[in-house]
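Page 47, continued from p. 46.
Same chain as before, 225 aa.
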Amino acid sequence: MKHALKLGVVGSLGRMGTRVCALAREDSRFQLAAQIARDNFARAPWSNLNVLIDFSTPESSLTALRKAVTSKIAVVIGVTGFSNSQMSQIKAASRKIPIFLSPNFSPGIFWMKRLAKEAAKALPAYDLSILETHHKAKKDAPSGTGKALASVLGRKVEILSSRIGDVVGEHTLVLAGPFERLKITHLAHSRDVFAKGALEAAAWVHSRNPGLYGMEDLFSQNAKG
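Result:
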């Protein structure tokens, strides 16, 4: 039997971190070895970990990343809102350790992007708009997922953001043409879909060579295997 991976969760007290911790406790592939928050960053057993899952903030994420590079730990990053300068630091770190970076770990969002790309290509004359809604405490707008969806469309697209209530996540691509509209929508009912996806990413990336990986790599590998 394989030994369980020693997992550290950065941002363990947040909305996503608490769900990652809860699901990790039920997953025999992992041993939840460290729940890392602002008050115990310095005391975390970095050198004893195999993989990190990070759902904190851009600033905390980069601090954890430096610890991971020193201790040669694979990292899964679900944080959004990085600046260009911060992204450069992540890319530099990926030359030393394997990093899995994604704004969204939902299988449904992965396939929504595939469908959106095909639809935008097939209907070049249609106007495009992305509508994204999240809970009112989410700081970045547009969302990382909204930006990722826009990036596959091959042309400029307006992203409309709404922050209301406790909405987990809703994304809709609207393609508007003469006499009709096509909508492709993804609704997340629970944060567990993202937490489970992050755990799948952690199980996959911990044994990879240094590099920057994403959902495309995970699904391509699973398709082969």
